């Protein structure tokens, strides 16, 4: 149910991109602000580990850069992204340190939730984004790496943001 509600919301978000925002997007390159960690996820730092936060940011940054490659540039719109929550499929090093006896062979459902805001160079909000996905079955988790489901979520989120910006540019030209 979460996946269906999220997909409906995220598609609605992409559909609400207005023509005026499209015109603004056509005039401005896009840069990605440093990715932030949300308060709820930051509160789990002892469980997940600061190093893992850096790893998640790097993965998401790479996905966004790939999807926005044709639009990246300075002195234009800025995409502000926050990783609201992330659940690993396997224990992180911090989790194994905090809980002796926890095995790397342990696995669970993973995923992530994200939010973003695209802000024009004048400071106006052009678009907001929200995306969440968590695995609904544990059957594939046994074969997953630590952040497999979070990576899948990041990839889908980046694709939606890229498609939204592509649509805005084509509508605005």
- Described by the principal axes of the CA atoms, the overall outline is elongated
Q: Gap between N and C termini, in Å?
A: 37 Å
Helix content: 40-55%
The average pLDDT score comes to: 81
Compute the number of helices: 7
In terms of DSSP E residues, the strand content is 15-25%
Quick one: biggest sheet? 5 strands, mixed
- Poorly predicted regions are 1-24
- How many strand elements? 5
Structural class: alpha/beta
Helix/strand order, N-terminal first? HHEEHHHEHEEH
The whole-angstrom Rg is 17 Å
Overall description:
By secondary structure, the chain is an alpha/beta fold. The protein is 46% helix and 20% strand. Strands 1, 2, 3, 4 and 5 form a 5-stranded mixed sheet that branches. A hairpin with a 5-residue loop joins strand 4 and strand 5. Helix 2 packs across helix 7 and helix 5 packs parallel to helix 7. The radius of gyration is 17 Å and the shape is elongated. The protein starts with a helix and ends with a helix.
Quick overview of this protein structure:
By secondary structure, this protein is an alpha/beta fold. It contains seven helices and five strands. It has helices spanning 2-15, 19-27, 39-42, 45-48, 50-67, 93-98, 148-172; strands at residues 30-32, 36-37, 77-87, 111-119, 125-134.
């Amino acid at each position: 149910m979460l996946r269906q509600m999220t997909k409906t919301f995220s598609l609605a978000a992409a559909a609400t991109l207005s023509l005026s925002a499209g015109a603004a997007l056509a005039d401005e390159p896009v840069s990605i602000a440093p990715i932030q960690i949300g308060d709820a996820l930051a509160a789990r730092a002892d469980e997940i580990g600061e190093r893992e936060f850096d790893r998640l940011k790097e993965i998401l940054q790479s996905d966004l850069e790939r999807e926005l490659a044709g639009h990246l540039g300075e002195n234009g719109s800025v995409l502000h992204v926050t990783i609201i929550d992330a659940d690993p499929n396997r224990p992180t090093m911090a989790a194994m340190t905090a809980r002796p006896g926890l095995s790397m062979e342990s696995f669970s459902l993973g995923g992530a939730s994200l939010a973003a805001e695209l802000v024009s160079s004048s400071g106006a909000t052009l678009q907001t984004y929200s995306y969440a996905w968590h695995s609904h079955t544990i059957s594939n988790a046994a074969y997953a790496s630590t952040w497999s489901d979070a990576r899948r979520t990041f990839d889908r989120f980046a694709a939606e943001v890229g498609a939204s910006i592509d649509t805005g540019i084509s509508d605005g030209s």
